[in-house]
Structure formats: structure tokens, C-alpha cells
Amino acid sequence: MGFSPYGGMEDAMFSIIPAIIFLVFVFVIGAIIVNAIRGVGEWQKNNASPVLTVEAKVVTKRANVSTRHHITGTDNMNHVSSSTTYFVTFEVVSGDRLEFRVSGKEYGMLAENDIGRLTFQGTRYLGFERSRG
After folding, report:
1. Do the bridges between strand 124-130 and strand 115-121 make them parallel or antiparallel, or are there none, so unpaired?
2. What is the pLDDT of residues 52-68, one digit of tens each?
3. Distances, alpha carbon 113 to alpha carbons 53, 56, 117, in Å
4. For site-directed labelling of 7, which of 23, 30, 54, 61 has its Cα 20 to 30 A away?
5. How far is CA 66 from CA 3, 47, 115, in A?
6. Distances in Å between the alpha carbon of 100 and those of 58, 86, 97?
């Protein structure tokens, strides 16, 4: 055994770092499991909900763009990828507002103030048929 100018600091670091890494690992795995359980719960709740069709008006639309930066390869190239999630808010006759996640195609086909029949099941958007008139 040699002399360490840090006293017992080196030994403490070698025992603390693995514990911190283990806790982060447990936290990440726990978060993944919780999100999976929530997703399955929402899916089951939607399947158990009735399919409803109601008169509605498109009140607003929004898009959420997520951007990720990646440094990959031995040449440390910086890559950027993005994804867009689309949402539409409908107002039903009672005045309640419902926001649904929709596909990019649906998002592009809908315009604010469109009036028609909204079909949904729980939190799941099924379609919107614009009224003729």
C-alpha cells in the first residue's frame, strides 16, 4: 500500500460513484416502467370508453416540435433530428373544449372555425367530418 495524499478520499470515490450510477439506472428504469403502465392504462381506458360523435368547432391548432442533437461516429459529426406532434382543440356545443393529438395529414386538413362532427373515444381522436354549408 502506498501513501495517498487524499487520505481515504480515493476509496470513498470508488464506493460512492457506483452507488450513484446504480441509483440513476434504477431511476431511469423506474421512469420507463411508470410511463409504460400509464400508457397501457390510458389505452385500456380509451378502449372501455364509448365512441362518441358530437357537433364541434375547430377552435385552435398547435404543433410541438422536438429537436434532438446527436454527436456520432469517430469524426464527431453533429446530427440534428426533429419530430413534430400535432394537436387540435375542438369546442363542443356545451362550451367544453377537447384537445386531441392528430396526424400531420389531419392537422393540415383542418382549419380554425371549421364546424362539423367530431368522433372520439376517450382521449383518442377518431375523425372530424366537416359540415356542408
Report:
1. antiparallel
2. 999 999 999 999 999 98
3. 18, 10, 13
4. 23
5. 52, 29, 30
6. 11, 8, 10
The C-alpha cell at 76 is 464527431
Q: What is residue 2's three-state secondary structure?
A: coil
**For 6-15, 39-48, 117-126, which range has the lowest pLDDT when averaged over its residues?**
6-15
Full-model pTM: 0.69
Query: How far, CA to CA in Å, does 121 sit from each of 46, 83, 104?
Result: 6, 25, 19
User: Cell numbers of 110, please?
Assistant: 383542418
Q: Which residue matches cell numbers 385500456?
A: 44
Of 87, 116, 81, which Cα lies nearest the Cα of 102? 87
Lay out the sheet containing 115-121: strands in order across: 97-102, 77-92, 51-72, 115-121, 124-130
What amino acid occupies position 16? Answer: I
In what helix (H) or strand (E) does residue 82 lie, and over which residues does it extend?
Answer: strand 77-92
